[in-house]
Specification:
disordered N terminus; mainly beta; 6 helices
């Protein structure tokens, strides 16, 4: 308050000696409010002469409005570079603002130039309570009422103060507050038949920033099954909610199928006050539904399943759809039902393809591999990977593989694959390298994505681009013939080192899909890189430069590209004999 008194002293001066000026004015512009959301009222100035500073004092009914701030942010006063800005707000329903454009040495004389409707201040307000019908509140200029000492509304021109007695027009404003219409609605979503997809609940909250909410919805259980509820990619999650609970099969008074969700954003110390800001159609929670009707493309039409918000029916005690604003539960005024479309799935004879080869493969429109095979030299090791494509999400795999016994396979690994990313819970494999047991060399693999409680039905996604299931290291026999090929094929009926015959299958919708399309592969044997003895510097010419290179190895630490080539006499050592 003492600082504001200083500003007042700077801007209030020389009233008695001020010469006559053209009419100047200050205006509070009309504004509207909805709910308890903060809003801003603009104050503008009409002035025929440059203004060096100003003081503002406004009042309103404290039972209907409260002040959130009085500032010059984004105004002409800020852009000109006002050097002293002080404000005070009062619970009794008012605020004052003092501004001096040039208050700091070297006193460059900045002013607000002559103009009309020059934006000079913002008054932040919010409603004290929700209104049931449209309500108007006067926001007025007041002289000699607020501040210590009390402040008058004035402009400073030519070093003198102009107030109402000197002809300053003060134009009051009106704030019109309307009843808040908060709304819950549903994101438009289509789900492929027999598959699962999230449906987002959208919130429009005009009452104010949301501290928590409860959602309760019923659905058509002849077409939909509610699988889970989460906050992924929602405004609730982004705000950092600290408590979330959901129920996919709550008790129902009416016997309807449905689900509930409840969130409290700031639930734990240190209580930072996080909220979901006022906004329209913000996703706050996702309900995951499975379309349970089996619809086939070209045979069945798209079907629609209703989802409705319901109060007082689901849960114990029965839940209502509400938001929490300023510590109070606010019933949702507008609950908009929706419908999910269940689309037919493709009727394909083969929905799954299995591949082997490199960890990245290119396939054509028919699903056939168009990229090159694996290759390596005798004794070398290559990474042999197994991949899939599918038109549906997959819950598990079973691989039955026969391979040339000139390959020695290591452990089967899912590290870095989509299976690791989705949290695969069961992996088993067995490799048979016994070429004399009558069934050749074999690899069998069993994989389940979701094998442990709480059984969240994890899957790997449908994909048109081959994704890696897992890889093994494959070491080529040292005596493998160059320019030959070692085959790797998906062979139904392999048993590894055991006695159970294994088929190549994918697990989809809890069913074993055996009609997978299998794409075998091979490892091409290429000659190992060759060298010419005595060509120590690898320039394809044997001359004195190679002797120099050998000496450099011995004396100065030179590292050749092929050390064996520098062993000119092939005695297993590099020394002066090789130079000779």
């Amino acid at each position: 308050m003492r600082l504001f008194a200083t500003v007042t002293a700077l801007v209030v001066c020389c009233i008695a000696t001020h010469p006559t000026h053209a009419v100047q004015s200050l205006t509070i512009h009309d504004a509207s409010c909805e709910g308890l959301a903060e809003f801003s009222v603009s104050l503008t100035m009409d002035n025929d002469d440059p203004v060096q500073g100003f003081a503002l004092a406004v009042a309103f009914d404290p039972l209907q409005l409260q002040t959130t701030g009085f500032n010059v942010e984004g105004t002409e006063a800020e852009s000109i570079g006002a050097e002293l800005v002080v404000s005070e707000t009062y619970p009794s329903g008012g605020a004052i603002l003092g501004v001096v454009l040039d208050a700091v040495s070297p006193f460059d004389g900045q002013t607000l130039p002559a103009g009309t409707e020059t934006h000079v201040a913002n008054l932040g307000l919010r409603a004290v309570m929700l209104v049931q019908s449209q309500t108007t509140v006067d926001v007025t200029f007041v002289d000699g009422f607020l501040g210590t000492p009390t402040v008058d509304n004035i402009l400073v021109i030519d070093g003198a103060s102009i107030g109402a007695p000197q002809g300053l027009d003060l134009n009051d404003g009106v704030v019109t507050c309307s009843p808040a219409i908060d709304r819950f609605s549903l994101e438009e979503t289509c789900i492929t038949s027999l598959e699962t997809s999230p449906v987002s609940v959208l919130m429009t909250n005009v009452t104010g920033p949301v501290q928590g909410f409860v959602v309760a919805m019923t659905h058509d259980d002849s077409r939909l099954a509610l699988v889970e509820v989460d906050l992924d990619t929602t405004a609730t999650n982004a705000a950092g909610t600290e408590f979330f609970a959901s129920d996919t099969s709550p008790d129902s008074i009416s016997g309807q199928a449905g689900g509930t969700a409840a969130a409290i954003l700031d639930f734990s110390a240190p209580f930072d006050g996080q909220t979901i800001a006022v906004g329209a159609d913000q996703a706050i929670v996702r309900f995951h539904y499975t379309c349970t009707v089996d619809l086939v493309e070209g045979v069945d039409a798209t079907e629609f399943a209703t989802i409705e918000f319901i109060d007082g029916d689901l849960g114990v005690p029965p839940a209502d759809n509400v938001i929490v604003v300023s510590g109070a539960s606010v019933p949702i005024a507008e609950l908009v039902p929706g419908a999910v479309c269940c689309e037919p799935h493709a009727d394909e004879a083969n929905t799954v393809h299995f591949y082997c080869g490199a960890d990245t493969l290119e396939v054509d429109a028919a699903g056939d591999v168009v990229s090159g095979p694996l290759s390596g030299g005798p004794g070398e090791t290559v990474d042999l990977c197994f991949l899939y494509t599918s038109t549906k999400n997959i819950q598990g795999f079973q691989l039955s593989v026969c391979f040339d016994c000139q390959l020695t396979l290591g452990d089967f690994s899912i590290a870095g694959t989509i299976l690791e990313a989705t949290g695969t819970e069961f992996l088993s494999f067995d490799t048979d390298h016994d070429s004399a047991d009558g069934d050749g060399c074999e690899l069998i693999v069993g994989i389940l994505i979701d094998a442990l409680p709480p059984f969240m039905d994890q899957t790997v996604p449908s994909t048109a681009t081959p994704l890696v299931i897992g890889c093994v290291s494959a070491t080529i026999a040292i005596d493998a013939a160059c320019d030959s090929a070692l085959g790797v094929e998906f062979c139904n009926g392999a048993n590894g080192s055991g006695g159970v015959l294994i088929e190549n299958i994918a697990v989809i919708d809890f069913q074993s899909i055996a009609n997978v399309t299998k794409h075998d592969c091979e490892v091409l044997i290429v000659p190992l890189p060759s060298f010419e003895r005595s060509d120590c510097n690898s320039d394809s010419i044997i001359d004195l430069a190679d002797s120099s290179a050998i000496l450099a190895i011995m004396l100065s630490g030179f590292t050749p590209s092929c050390e064996d080539a520098c062993d000119s006499n092939d005695d297993g050592a590099i020394n002066l004999a090789d130079v000779v």
